[in-house]
Amino acid sequence: MLEPSNNNELPPIPGKRYFTIGEVSDLCQVKPHVLRYWEQEFPQLKPVKRRGNRRYYQRQDVVMIRQIRSLLYEQGYTIGGARLQLSDADKEGEKLSADAIRDMLNELEEIKSILNS
After folding, report:
1. Hey, how many other C-beta atoms are within 10 angstroms of the C-beta on 64?
2. What is the pLDDT of residue 91?
3. CB 35 within 8 A of CB 105
4. 74/31 Cα distance (integer angstroms)
5. Of 13, 15, 22, 37, which one is least surrounded by beta carbons within 10 A?
6. Per-residue pLDDT tens over the stretch 45-69
7. In whole angstroms, what is the distance from residue 109 CA to residue 89 CA?
């Protein structure tokens, strides 16, 4: 994943499981209404919604928000460009996962043939 450079100036992410929109706003230095807007624009950003439609973000959501923030505010991408960057990163990660699975299957077949002989 991308680790944005200026995110070093942001406060560290505490070891909690869930964060409210206010906490995420403080952690990422982005206003709550911007976070709600980004949820509509970036399909990767899906906080858990509970009682009364309250949003609860997990750690990976906070990291994703920091990536989006970096792409938009620091690297100068448009919303569409940032969405494309993130989807390309997702596809690359999926390809790496598929390759790793294929390699594991090949290794298991080799182990199976060694054990059978």
Report:
1. 20
2. 66
3. no
4. 16
5. 15
6. 999 999 888 999 999 999 999 999 9
7. 30
Block residue for tokens 């182990």: 111
- Burial (0-12, 13-18, 19+ Cβ within 10 Å), 16: exposed
79 phi/psi in degrees, rounded to 5: -60, -45
Tell me the pLDDT band of 4, cut-offs 50, 70 and 90: very low
Q: What tokens were used for 52? A: 């009364």
Contact 1, 67 (CB under 8 A): yes
- When comparing pLDDT for 117 and 34, which is higher? 34
Domains of the chain: 6-84 (1.10.1660.10)
d(CA 62, CA 102): 31
